[in-house]
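Many introductory courses stop at the sequence. We go one step further.
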Amino acid sequence: MEPVHTGVHGRVRARAPQTTGAHAHEPGHVPARPVLLFALRSSERPLMPLALLALAVGAFGIGTTEFVMMGLLPDIADDLHISIPSAGHLVSAYALGVVIGAPL
């Protein structure tokens, strides 16, 4: 394929070669109408999509809150005047709430 010209936003536009006639049904056939192909330059590609960054930050935040709860378990038990195993059930209930509420 040969480049036709540089299109909008510095993208390279190319046209596929046209084939018609007896060779039209062979494997590797390219349709007769032109096909435009666009490619971004490597300097214009985003390093990481914004949505992926948001998901990563959210997953880190949820994971951090669950691990912080484990570290604060003795303090939670003392504050609520219950045993540490009973406070562990609170942490389990919180984790179950995260599992159920996360897809919503």
